[in-house]
């Protein structure tokens, strides 16, 4: 039984982790590290609680034993003297391993015993920590250390305590798709990845043949090091290395998606397109549409005049049963004209990030994570007016921005891709 899985399924252990206690499970023992205590010399030291776990399958039961052992020394009061009624020399001193062998044991039994391990740990913690904080008020056992997960214990390398602390675990499960694909890891694609890796998708597949160059670092999340840039890594390789620190099952494909390999996308639960215009993009969208694979295509179209940068960003959504609008209304351009704004390849990090955020909002609405009264399929944001325009939804006001009617709605030529995945 892995510690992380046990914590997830046991409300009392999960509460300890949420409070910030350093929880481990070692050879059937509950270990709580980073407990400040006072030693015989009236100095603050650090130790660990240790007690056996009572389990029912993969869930902790009420403790059958009221004894708690301590590793690292013998806790004293603030003057270095024994704490009345705490240490009991008659209790068995447990050992979870050679490094986790008890120095002493405590025996405080409340009427009826401890209802759960949260009550047991916090009861003994109050007795041990109080003297330490009298000497060093900043001393605390609430270190909020991550709980490492096992290979078969989900996609994250450490326990997702955010969802449990926020109370959204049940809703977050709706995001646990089997396969999600990002095509293109230019500015918008990299920000899409940054957001998606924090969701419980089982497998994330990344497609891009380009090498990470210096200019890419200025419109991507995080901070690439000089050494990273000097290595000449493929974008998919670089980002996989970075985000694999947090999660498993990121699959790097250092190739572009074309009509030849588009079949690799057809078993995806969702696809994000953040790529160049061109015939390959047309082939991808046709294949996804024919096979009813849901996708979001993103576009950034900005330009610079004498004084300002201006333009628009776009997300276009295609869902099973709601796909006809893409081709019918020519919402996505596949070939740019000589004067097209995107030929400048002008990209700015905040616009890439905003585009990715809009796409993720729409994606999560589709999966039932966020409330969705509009059900829009096409959104354009205008930089100069700070207006959002929605189309193809259920609202009667779908084709209007703030103060603008449907006749003023931007077309695909006004908000296009900006060579998203360009090197």
What does this structure look like?
The chain has 423 residues and is an alpha/beta fold. The protein folds into two domains: 3-135, no CATH class; 168-408, NAD(P)-binding Rossmann-like Domain (Rossmann fold), CATH 3.40.50. Helix content is 26%, strand content 20%. The strands form three sheets. An eight-stranded mixed sheet has the order 10-9-8-11-12-13-14-15. It has a five-stranded antiparallel sheet with strand order 1-2-3-6-7, covered by helices on one side.
Total beta-strand segments = 15
Unreliable sequence segments: 337-344, 396-423
The CATH topology of the largest domain turns out to be Rossmann fold
Order of helices and strands: HHEEEEEEEHHHEHEHHHEEHEEHHEE
Q: Into which percent range does the helicity of residues fall?
A: 25-40%
Query: Please, what is the average pLDDT?
Result: 87
CATH class of the largest domain reads: Alpha Beta
CATH H-level homologous superfamily name of the largest domain: NAD(P)-binding Rossmann-like Domain
Give keywords:
single chain; 423 residues; alpha/beta; Rossmann fold; 2 domains; eight-stranded mixed β-sheet; five-stranded antiparallel β-sheet; 12 helices; disordered C terminus
């Amino acid at each position: 039984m892995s510690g992380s899985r046990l914590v997830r399924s046991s409300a009392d252990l999960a509460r300890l982790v949420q409070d910030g206690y350093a929880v481990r499970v070692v050879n059937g023992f509950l270990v709580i590290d980073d407990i400040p205590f006072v030693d015989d010399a009236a100095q603050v030291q650090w130790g660990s609680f240790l007690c056996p776990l009572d389990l029912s399958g993969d869930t902790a039961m009420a403790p059958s034993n009221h004894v708690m052992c301590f590793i690292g020394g013998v806790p004293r009061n603030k003057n270095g003297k024994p704490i009345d009624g705490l240490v009991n020399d008659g209790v068995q001193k447990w050992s979870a391993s050679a490094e986790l062998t008890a120095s002493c044991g405590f025996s405080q039994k409340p009427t009826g015993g401890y209802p759960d391990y949260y009550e047991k740990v916090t009861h003994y913690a109050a007795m041990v920590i109080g003297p330490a904080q009298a000497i060093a008020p900043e001393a605390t056992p609430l270190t909020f250390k991550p709980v490492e997960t096992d290979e078969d214990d989900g996609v994250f390398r450490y326990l997702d305590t955010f969802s449990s602390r926020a109370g959204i675990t049940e809703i977050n499960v709706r995001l646990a798709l089997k396969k999600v694909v990002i095509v293109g890891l230019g500015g918008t694609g990299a920000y899409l990845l940054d957001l998606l890796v924090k969701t419980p998708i089982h497998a994330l597949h990344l497609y891009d043949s380009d090498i990470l160059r210096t200019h890419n670092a200025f419109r991507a999340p995080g901070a690439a090091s000089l050494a990273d840039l000097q290595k000449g890594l493929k974008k998919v390789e670089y980002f996989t290395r970075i985000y694999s620190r947090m999660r498993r099952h990121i699959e790097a494909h250092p190739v572009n998606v074309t009509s030849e390999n588009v079949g690799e996308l057809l078993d995806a639960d969702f696809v994000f397109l953040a790529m160049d215009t061109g015939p390959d993009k047309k082939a991808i969208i046709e294949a996804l549409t024919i096979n009813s694979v849901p996708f979001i295509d993103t576009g950034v179209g900005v330009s610079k005049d004498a004084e300002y940068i201006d333009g628009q960003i776009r997300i276009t959504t295609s869902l099973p049963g709601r796909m006809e609008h893409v081709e019918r209304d020519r919402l996505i351009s596949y070939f740019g004209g000589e004067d097209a704004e995107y030929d400048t390849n002008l990209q700015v990090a905040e616009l890439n990030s905003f585009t990715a955020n809009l796409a993720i909002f729409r994606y999560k609405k589709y999966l039932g994570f966020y409330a969705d009264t509009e059900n829009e399929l096409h959104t354009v944001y205008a930089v100069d007016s700070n207006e959002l325009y929605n189309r193809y939804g259920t609202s009667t006001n779908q084709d209007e921005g703030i103060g603008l009617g449907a006749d003023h709605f931007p077309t695909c030529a006004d908000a296009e891709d900006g060579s998203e995945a360009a090197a």
